[in-house]
Amino acid sequence: MLTSLELLEAAGISRATLNNYISLGLLPRPVVKNPGAEAMTRARQIGYFPDDAVSRIAQIQKLKKQGLQMTEIARRLQAENPQSAMAAPEDLAAQSSGERRESAPEPMRSVPGMAGNQRFTIDQIPFPAYMVNYNFEITWYNDDARNELLGGFERLPSDIKERNALVYLLKGMYGSAAANREALVQIHLMLGRGRLTRNDLMGFLTQQAQTLASSSQSQADVYPTGSLVKLPLSLQAPSGERVEYSVHASYYREGILFVYAPALGDDNLLGLLERRDEVIRNLLKRRLPVLTDVAVLVADLQNSVRICTELPADEYFELINEIWATMEPIFRKYYGTHGKHVGDGMVYYFLPQPDCNYILNALTCAQEIKEAMRRISKEWQLRKNWTHELYLNTGINEGLEWLGVFHVDTKVEFTVLGDTINHTARLSDFARSGAIWATKNLLGKLSAEQRKRVKFGIRRKNEDGFEVMVDSSYSRIMELIDLSMPHNEKLHDVAAMAITEIIDLAS
What we know:
By secondary structure, this protein is an alpha+beta fold. It contains 19 helices and 21 strands. The protein has helices at 4-11, 15-23, 53-65, 70-80, 82-86, 90-93, 143-148, 165-171, 178-191, 198-204, 216-219, 267-273, 276-285, 304-310, 313-333, 358-384, 419-430, 440-444, 448-451, and strands spanning 2-3, 31-33, 46-49, 100-101, 114-115, 118-119, 129-132, 138-141, 228-236, 242-252, 255-262, 290-301, 336-338, 346-350, 392-408, 411-417, 436-439, 454-461, 467-471, 475-476, 498-505. Strands 12, 13, 14, 15, 16, 17, 18, 19, 20 and 21 form a ten-stranded mixed sheet that branches. Strands 8-7-11-10-9 form a five-stranded antiparallel sheet, with helices on both faces. A hairpin with a 5-residue loop joins strand 18 and strand 19 (467-471). The protein starts with a strand and ends with a strand.
């Protein structure tokens, strides 16, 4: 008997092709059993095929070269030997007690989202699948994708910038053929919906640039719409055989999930992908920790304890919910990712984007939530006849940090490990009266042209005791406050940090 890996190597086909042959009844489903102590694997269960499966595949490929369609091949082989295709030989199934037939793959024509009576999950997708962010950097993958498409790497590098999916696709078994490279670039341009341009591709595909046909950009100008898209993809295997995929792209705020299913029988997969909340929750739980550039925004409600004391409980919760409901669309507009935070405040992470600057996104977002908070404050002043203002005090910082997720049951939260988040929280504690404070390091990441859009500086007192704004300047925190005061004790660890107040941004 042959394992599936041995069969793939002997026959020179892909796993998707193998699954397709099984679903069409051209090959028997594998017998699944314990491989035994002598096997060089840690897997508890392995699927085995009969020894004649290799010759069976050779027969299929011969008929394909004669121009026969797969359905005609299936009918012809079934007529020649009715028992060999749809079921494995009985003596093979009886060779080991406790053996069972693998339940997948079946022709998937049942109720959407169901495999027989079982629900598909992300871990059970029997096809190559991976998720990318909107820079097309890999954030999750399954073993089928790694082995069949992405070059069979040992492990991904920790730096997210070195995880571009197309780089790995071109290293995989399909990447050696120019036609395959063109097809892979083309479909990613289309499914990227314009956020990744051909020029972006050339930045990391310099060696392959000359092999890419000039038609790609014009063909990819028309982008498919909808949260779930399916496009055909035809690739040539090293054996010369054509492999037909249906590439499913499911779009989420956090990125795009790609699934390379066989061209036939993907109804159950569509059912899974339509359960969007469940899918993204499971994907985020499995998201790989990455080392990435990130801008962190922390905003806290000033005097929240006093406000909670003054308001009836139902009105306090109403206020907090109104603040969150107002701010969430603004964060989403600028690609902010919600992070873990204790209390009434909010933490958002801004990651590099292909079509905009993530630091400008964080700064512009901070300005918009400041204006939105002013409107909320005026409304509540009129409603409660208050004389005091409601403020969100904001700190913004940047760094190269580890981004990962914490999850318990159905709750998933992004978090950044390192000094960046801690220093940003202290900067938010330092801010008063709704001010936005940012680090010198953060503004230093902007180009000179981008920095011209930002009005920033330090308020200082002149000789007459009047406060004036010194534009485009910075100061250490220790020079702006009295660190000997008890309420400033928490700022000692950032006392030497160079910061500035963000006043406005030009559009």
